[in-house]
């Protein structure tokens, strides 16, 4: 049984997948297995992966295209490690990614351990969010909370974090930049906004009790979705969401100013 199962979902990224795979092969910590889940690629992903299957620690699974969350979940079901670490196929990690996770787990007995992230080679001031690549989670806990929610096309790591926190998972943090995240700034931003709006309606229904307890979270989720609606031209819906955000936590004055701003601004 390996200590870590690294799961890499991929879809039509044959031209860049090798970088992610090599970053795992170059780990200074060797007690790992790598599970590649091909989410129905129609490029030459399978041929690229075949070269790496000479390493007995690497396994490859092909599924019909069902989305990244389903691919990650399949990888977790096939895994045999004590902890799971996810990595998307267009990102990569440092050579000490796993050994630093391992050392922190031995020290703190954490259920979830995070490292710092460089996004497009730029340091982020806050690394509180989970991203696929900046954390490792105890497999038993990941399965216990229900894995990734396959209904989500946006914010799936944030929603997973909420469930891990509800289950009182022990979090720990490594103050090292071990994860390198490539954010595609040319991707369809309108589609991302639409996915975020769908995320809002879905999680507000799924996590009603959570948002009753944490009104600030509810406010942020409402108002971010509202601003996205405004930018997509869905102005009535946007203003409604922004005001709902304010009334969910009326003590937060900045949210009132935001609601007034978008109510006055008819553009």
From TrEMBL:
Pfam families in alphabetical order: Glycos_transf_2 (PF00535)
Glycosyltransferase 2-like domain location, by residue?
Answer: 5-129
Alphabetized SUPFAM superfamilies for the sequence: Nucleotide-diphospho-sugar transferases (SSF53448)
Name recorded for this polypeptide? Glycosyltransferase family 2 protein
The upper taxonomy is: Bacteria, Pseudomonadati, Bacteroidota, Flavobacteriia, Flavobacteriales
């Amino acid at each position: 049984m390996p200590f870590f199962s690294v799961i890499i979902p991929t879809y039509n990224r044959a031209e860049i997948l090798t970088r992610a795979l090599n970053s795992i092969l170059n780990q200074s910590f060797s007690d790992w297995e790598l599970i590649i889940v091909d989410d129905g690629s129609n490029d030459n992903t399978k041929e690229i992966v075949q070269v790496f299957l000479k390493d007995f620690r690497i396994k490859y699974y092909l599924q019909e295209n069902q989305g990244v969350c389903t691919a990650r979940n399949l990888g977790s079901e096939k895994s045999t490690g004590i902890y799971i670490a996810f990595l998307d196929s267009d990102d990569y990690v440092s050579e000490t990614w796993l050994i630093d996770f391992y050392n922190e787990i031995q020290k703190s007995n954490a259920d979830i351990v995070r490292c710092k992230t460089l996004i497009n080679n730029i340091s982020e001031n806050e690394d509180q969010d989970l991203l696929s690549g900046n954390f490792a989670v105890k497999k038993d806990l990941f399965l216990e909370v229900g894995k990734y929610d396959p209904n989500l096309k946006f914010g799936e790591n944030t929603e997973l974090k909420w469930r891990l926190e509800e289950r009182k998972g022990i979090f720990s943090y490594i103050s090292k930049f071990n994860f390198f995240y490539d954010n595609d700034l040319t991707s369809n931003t309108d589609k991302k906004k639409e996915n975020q709006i769908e995320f809002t309606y879905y999680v507000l229904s799924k996590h009603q009790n959570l948002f009753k307890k944490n009104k600030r979270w509810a406010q942020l989720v409402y108002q971010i979705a509202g601003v996205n609606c405004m930018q997509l031209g869905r102005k009535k819906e946007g203003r409604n969401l922004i005001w709902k955000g304010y009334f969910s936590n009326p003590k937060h004055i900045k949210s009132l100013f935001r609601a007034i701003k978008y109510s006055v601004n008819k553009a």
